[in-house]
From TrEMBL:
<dbReference type="GO" id="GO:0016846">
    <property type="term" value="F:carbon-sulfur lyase activity"/>
</dbReference>
<comment type="similarity">
    <text>Belongs to the alliinase family.</text>
</comment>
<comment type="subunit">
    <text>Homodimer.</text>
</comment>
<protein>
    <recommendedName>
        <fullName>Alliinase C-terminal domain-containing protein</fullName>
    </recommendedName>
</protein>
<keyword id="KW-0732">Signal</keyword>
<feature type="compositionally biased region" description="Low complexity">
    <location>
        <begin position="4"/>
        <end position="15"/>
    </location>
</feature>
<dbReference type="GO" id="GO:0008483">
    <property type="term" value="F:transaminase activity"/>
</dbReference>
<dbReference type="GO" id="GO:0006520">
    <property type="term" value="P:amino acid metabolic process"/>
</dbReference>
<feature type="domain" description="Alliinase C-terminal">
    <location>
        <begin position="25"/>
        <end position="365"/>
    </location>
</feature>
<feature type="region of interest" description="Disordered">
    <location>
        <begin position="2"/>
        <end position="22"/>
    </location>
</feature>
<keyword id="KW-0808">Transferase</keyword>
<keyword id="KW-0663">Pyridoxal phosphate</keyword>
<keyword id="KW-0032">Aminotransferase</keyword>
Amino acid sequence: STPSSSASSSSASVAEVEDGGEEVVNLDHGDPTMYESYWQIMGEKTTIVIPGWQSISYFSDIRSTCWFLEPEFAKQVVRLHKVVGNAETEGHHIVVGTGSSQLYLAALYALSSKEAAEPMSVVSAAPYYSSYPLMTDYQKSGLHKWAGEARSFNKPGPFVELITSPNNPDGFVRHSIVNQTGGALIHDLAYYWPQYTPITSPADNDLTLFTVSKSTGHAGMRIGWALVKDLEVAKRMTKFIELSTIGVSKDSQLRAAKVLEAVADSCEQAGSSEFSESFFEVSYRLMTERWQHLRDAVNTSGRFGLPEFTPAFCHFHGHNLQPQPAFAWLRCLNGVEDCESFLRGFNILTRGGKHFGASPEYVRSYPVMADHQNSGFHKWNGERRSFNRRGH
Ligand code: PMP
């Protein structure tokens, strides 16, 4: 999630001191700082040097549909999807974006019709990612308009259905649900990586979005990519990015390429002297330990409910495993109607269900992904030492 959409989230740290001098635990952010210690240990493996004369041109590859796409970045995207098995890249065009956020806007632009009398409807099944309605409507575009809950959508005319799988905020696997013709699908697979969910088959959709923000944790690089089947849609997405930012930072693409390369190397060379385990084994274990702490705390208190998931066979890890989302979709029990206010009373900041088109009995909180210095989650900081012990 983006830090800016909450009044309380201007600081980068999780435990922060408010104006009145009280310490609050901010679980509203989805900042993936939990991976920082892993990348520190990887050290030089992801270091790149960019001399001042390099990457000067606007252009990366004028023969490519996406002319600002760095070939090395495209190569590593294809390689990583093959190694992980989470997406088919053959027969797809790659469009790079300044985060998958920019690609979401590019996709709306590309899928809407310039000649339509009315804006195209944009829907998603609740609970949906809270940034979608805001991003869809903040420019009051004549091309597209948020139309809310996909389950009750029955307006004739063109529409787009957004499918986030695994879903932000509840972590469940999602499929398209609108049973109507004239629609296009955007699949946001930001979390379809083996540390969060079983990889059951390679995604092969018309338009799929991925991001380094959640896969490797490099949210600050602002790099995402789209896999697009239709050439015309890929061209129009490229046009949108040309019109809005004349391309995407080459420096960031080169850095992203290096990080993706290290992740793919870690998978292919797991068990070697270079990489004792793959990035996804380490991050999967980290998520398991954090979910265990969270479930223990929730069970002990008896005041909250968490989603229960069904295990599935993961082709990457080679065994059955439970989904373990980057966030917790927490429900207040015992008749508490406004879970966000309830937790706020304990100086814990979360995002209430209504932002996701759901009941205020729910909140989304991020106790899993960020590092919680000074917030009482000291056990989690111990991960750093265990990474070292395992020789990464
Ligand atoms: N989609 C989902 C489901 C997300 O949770 C996020 C980040 N919170 C994004 C997209 C945006 O990612 P990016 O940093 O690549 O813009």
